[in-house]
Write a structure and sequence with these properties.
heterodimer, A: DNA polymerase, domain 1, Rossmann fold, two-stranded antiparallel ribbon, B: 512 residues, Ribosomal Protein S5, domain 2, five-stranded parallel β-sheet, four-stranded mixed β-sheet, 18 strands
């Protein structure tokens, strides 16, 4: 393993050249032992590069990295590891070494969900529903542990008992954003947090571009929930397009700035996303039958409704309403309404939203 | 033999009798005041000398020693001036006491021998009464405050000369106590709950908070009317008993801010410190260990607007006084205990941008949670009622909409309080439902079966914490009291379940 880490730490060589070297020499220790002349035979390696490879004949750095990884209980995923998904290797720039915490399952590629940090209630809803669907289908959810959509997707997936993988643009021991510290720990429990960066690496803008590539390459399909113009989520979508992965996009209002990027994706040929079943993977769907109905179960009690209660339900039939609106439409005073709505909410006839509006359980 | 005059010293909100002993000794002319007085007491000699000379009396050309007994207790304040001056005049034979009974003397002297008002008059006069002193002389400006104490004769004067004449019985006392002009009060405060429109549901919870003494937290976006509602809470609180009013007036007297208020404080105090307030400003402190906002809000409302912006330590420091209903402030020189039984009313935004729940808000749920965690669990726990204040769309209000007046709300509060007073007659220190401990909750908050079922459903649904269980019972108890119901009914439980919006909200957040 030390030779792999040594290879990634060479200056002037990226994943593409690394893979060229590997293709020729088969294993990194062969590269370590190669002579300058031998190296020069490989296309793309000039004399200065060959010289610097030969001069970097020390494994001290690699060993100290391994010490640190062991201390922090981080694991390493090598390019030739069977756990390294073949699908992800389609990306030319796929890193040959990945560091991770948690558990990488066999065949862990899944559905990517990305979106903006600052999002609308609507986008949040889309992300959460999609994540819950994936969790119930036992499909792994790939995202980037960023604020907003990423965070909602991971959280909702974990809450629904699913498996999720997060790709970071920083070292695994650098918590970014800091408020997702607990989330990261929870992902490690029921999924994996993966980074190509060594522990201690600070988040930098260029790292996130690489991370977006990783998200796309590990995703069979990519759901872009919301993206403004020039956003990170759009770059993930570009990667996905380049890799020929299906990009799904829910429609947004045309005036909404946080949806302009996604609407343009739609215009440019992305698949219109309308329901979570679209995220299903036919080859994975064989054993699981949908059980999303669990948290949608309609009201528990089959008791007869009082006159007031049926009036409330009538008023709510067309749209969600505030308590003041219900009051003026039914003529029932607010105190009585609160009492009725409390009971009706507990018995799942109605639900209230964070804006304080009530609507019927669908 | 030394001449002895009686005065008083303040310790916390209580006062005690002090003997001011004056003795002239042959020696270099000088004046020395002993008895652990602070700088204000030490400086009395300059004021007294000037005032005696100004009144055409003679200041003794001898060594004058003044002792404030008991001499081992620290004393502060400028109100010993008058007693010292009278003592010197008696000692030098310029004043011959005609009255034989004890007289308490309080007052600060100006350089041209006028009497100035001082703070702490009320506790001092109360101390005089309990020490068996029948007559007390105070500055004219303090007369109104002093005459709040019944069963003791108080005299107000404007000049040192008048005091001397009175003590020598040369001039009979004739200044009458002016009638306090307290009727202006209601017009000045002219706020009423009927100004708050379309919030009947919320007002019900506020009434319950007032009736049960529950602490209240209002959450809402900027400009939705949190402060407007908070300002109206004192108007629905039950009126203070005379005992309570005296307690409050005493604290204000000691804090030296009674002069502006004049007379007995009859309205429950409403204090709203800015969120920049320091811990000492809130709980009390300073070099003299003076009362802080929580004591000034005693028997009234402490309103913390933008509670999330208060310093964390400042908020935590409220915990212990909220439990004990009093606070002990210790400083190098003094250790004072002040009462601090207040209803905490707080207001905050739902998230850092302030618009959670609307499309305008782009805060992530983790950010929302982080913002709310600025208020620690123990403090949040003490907020029995946490309600959202939703902005009212005036289009939804019907035209003939009539708000409820504070007066009618107050009557309901009084009725509920009466039931609680009867319930807790035997319990010491417990006046309202909010103060019930677990033992009392078990005794008084019995649930009917369907009520219990409902509460259990809410537990499952909103993942309420087990420690909150009692909070709901207490609030439900107050809801039942509002309608004079002995049992806690299902509807009371339903309303109580809706009393903690933040906790209910927590279950809806997509966070781990």
């Amino acid at each position: 393993m030390e030779y792999w880490i040594w290879l990634t730490r060479l200056k002037g060589i990226g994943p593409i050249t690394q893979k060229k070297l590997l293709a020729y020499f088969k294993t990194p220790d062969q590269i370590y032992g190669a002579s300058e002349d031998e190296l020069l035979t490989i296309p793309g390696i000039g004399s200065s590069l060959a010289q610097s490879i030969c001069q970097a004949h020390s494994l001290d750095g690699a060993f100290s990295v391994m010490d640190e990884l062991a201390k922090k209980k981080m694991k390493v995923l090598l390019y030739d590891d069977p756990l390294y998904p073949e699908l992800a290797k389609a990306w030319l720039e796929a890193p040959i070494v990945l560091y991770y915490l948690g558990e990488i399952r066999k065949n862990s590629c899944g559905i990517g969900i990305v979106g903006s940090r600052r999002c609308s209630i609507y986008a949040k809803q889309v992300a959460i529903e999609a994540a819950e669907y994936l969790a119930h289908q036992n499909i792994s959810l790939i995202s980037g542990q960023g604020k907003g959509i990423d965070g909602y997707a991971h959280t909702a997936c974990l809450k629904a008992g699913g498996y999720t993988i997060a790709f970071l643009g920083n070292g695994l021991d650098v918590f970014y954003p800091i408020e997702h510290r607990k989330l990261q720990a929870a992902i490690c429990e029921n999924g994996a947090v993966i980074s190509r960066y060594l522990p201690g690496t600070k988040p930098r803008p260029e790292h996130f571009l690489q991370r977006n590539g990783l998200i796309s390459s590990w995703s069979r399909k990519l759901l872009v929930v919301a993206a403004a113009d020039k956003s990170g989520a759009l770059s993930t979508a570009q990667f996905a397009n380049a890799l020929n992965r299906d990009v799904l996009v829910p429609p947004h209002e045309i005036y909404c700035t946080s949806g302009q990027g996604t609407n343009r994706l739609l215009k440019n040929g992305a698949t219109l996303y309308l329901k979570s079943e679209q995220l299903g993977l036919s080859e994975l769907m064989t054993n699981q039958v949908t059980n999303t109905a669990i948290n949608r179960s309609p009201n528990l009690s089959d008791r007869k409704l009082s006159a007031d209660e049926s009036r409330i339900l009538d008023v709510l039939a067309d749209s969600e309403k505030t308590i003041q609106q219900i009051e003026s439409l039914t003529g029932i005073n607010q105190v009585l309404l609160i009492e009725q709505l409390a009971i009706m909410e507990l018995e799942r006839f109605v639900v209230s939203s964070s804006s304080g509006r009530y609507r019927l359980v669908d | 033999m030394a001449s002895i005059v009686n005065s008083f010293a303040i310790s916390g909100v209580e006062a005690y009798l002090v003997d001011v002993e004056v003795k002239t000794i042959t020696g270099q002319p000088m004046i020395s005041i002993v008895g652990l007085g602070d700088t204000a007491v030490k400086e009395a000699r300059e004021r007294v000398e000037a005032a005696i000379n100004d009144s055409k009396y003679k200041f003794p050309q001898k060594k004058v020693v003044i002792n404030l007994a008991p001499s081992d207790l620290k004393k502060s304040g400028s109100h010993f001036d008058l007693a010292i001056a009278i003592g010197i005049l008696i000692e030098t034979g310029q004043l011959v006491l005609v009255k034989k009974e004890k007289i308490g003397i309080i007052g600060e002297l100006s350089l041209n021998s006028r009497l100035r008002a001082c703070s702490g008059i009320l506790p001092m006069v109360i101390a005089a009464r309990s020490a068996g002193v029948r007559n007390v002389i105070v500055p004219q400006d303090n007369l109104q405050e002093a005459s709040l104490v019944t069963g003791i004769q108080v005299y107000g004067f404007e000049e040192l000369k008048d005091v001397v004449d009175f003590l020598e019985d040369k001039k009979p006392y004739q200044i009458e106590v002016k009638n306090p002009l307290s009727k202006d009060r209601e017009i000045l405060n002219g706020v009423d709950f009927c100004d708050v429109q379309g919030q009947d549901g919320l007002i019900e919870y506020i009434v319950v908070a007032a009736a049960g003494g529950h602490n209240l937290l209002m959450i809402g976006s900027p400009g939705c009317g949190k402060s407007m509602i908070a300002k109206r809470i004192p108007t629905i609180l039950p009126s203070m008993t005379e005992e309570e009013a005296l307690e409050v007036t005493k604290i204000y007297s000691v804090a030296g801010i009674l002069k502006e208020k004049g007379g007995l404080i009859e309205d429950r105090p409403f204090r709203s410190p800015h969120h920049n307030a320091s811990t000492n400003a809130l709980i009390g402190g300073g070099k003299d260990a003076t009362p802080g906002e929580i004591s000034l809000a005693h028997n009234g409302v402490l309103f913390l607007d933008e509670i999330a912006e208060f310093g964390k330590n400042t908020l935590e420091s409220l915990r212990q006084p909220m439990e004990d209903q009093r606070v002990t402030i210790s400083r190098v020189k003094y250790t004072n205990t002040y009462p601090a039984s207040f209803m905490l009313v707080a207001a905050m935004n739902p998230c850092s941008c302030g618009y959670y729940g609307t499309d305008r808000c782009k805060c992530t749920d983790y950010e929302v949670m982080k913002y709310r965690q600025k208020i620690s669990g123990p403090i949040m726990d003490r907020m029995d009622i946490q309600k959202y204040v939703r902005p009212v769309d005036f289009m939804d209000l019907s035209n003939d909409y009539q708000g409820v007046t504070s007066e009618s709300l107050r009557q309901r509060v009084e009725a509920a309080r009466k039931i609680q007073r009867q319930r807790f007659t035997k319990m010491d220190g417990i006046n309202c439902n909010a103060q019930m401990g677990n033992q009392l909750i078990k005794e008084f908050c019995l649930l009917e079966d369907d009520g219990r079922k409902l509460l259990m459903m809410a537990y499952d649904r909103y993942q309420y914490s087990a420690r909150a269980y009692h909070k709901y019972l207490k609030v439900a108890r107050t809801f039942a009291d509002m309608e004079a119901s002995i049992k806690i009914r299902k509807k009371d439980v339903a309303l109580a379940i809706m009393a903690r919006d933040l906790e209910k909200d927590r279950a809806g957040l997509t966070v781990l």
